[in-house]
């Protein structure tokens, strides 16, 4: 069974991020992408546009110390893709090792909007402080 095209697209984005390939990552996004990240930390908020999202990803990586996001499972249809991620971050003596979820709204073969859901937001934000 082959994956839905939206699953393949988002999976390629995860691979691009892991490999440091910003061009491939940005190509999967709508120009006016909207991204929502929960919490009250400096990396939380609503971000609009490719450059804002790229800055958010860079800020999150810098704030988290070491950060590794592995795609565990992907579900997709014509409108949405849902990714289950294994996120491990270590900063000093603090460690975040959880499964988080990202939901992507798809439009015209690109990611138009996304929402991050963090398994333990208090633990995540404690790591960043």
Key words describing this protein structure:
alpha+beta, single chain, globular, Nuclear Transport Factor 2, Chain: A, 6 strands
What does this structure look like?
The chain is an alpha+beta fold and 129 residues long. It has helices at residues 5-18, 22-27, 50-63, 121-128, and strands at residues 29-37, 45-48, 66-76, 80-91, 94-107, 110-117. A hairpin with a 2-residue loop joins strand 5 (94-107) and strand 6 (110-117). It is globular. The model has no long low-confidence stretch (mean pLDDT 94).
What is this structure's SSE topology?
Elements lengths: L4 H14 L3 H6 L1 E9 L7 E4 L1 H14 L2 E11 L3 E12 L2 E14 L2 E8 L3 H8 L1
Parallel strand pairs: 1-6
Antiparallel strand pairs: 1-2, 3-4, 4-5, 5-6
Terminal-residue CA separation:
44 Å
Number of helices: 4
Q: Can you list the strand order of the major beta sheet?
A: 2-1-6-5-4-3
CATH architecture: Roll
Rg computed from alpha carbons, rounded to a whole number of angstroms: 14 Å
Q: Return the CATH class.
A: Alpha Beta
Number of DSSP E strands: 6
Largest sheet: 6 strands, mixed
Helix percentage: 25-40%
The computed structural class is alpha+beta
- Spans with pLDDT under 50 lasting ≥5 residues? none
Strand content: 35-45%
By CATH, the topology is Nuclear Transport Factor 2, Chain: A
| Number of domains as seen in the coordinates | 1
Mean pLDDT: 94
* SSE series: HHEEHEEEEH
Give the overall silhouette.
Answer: globular
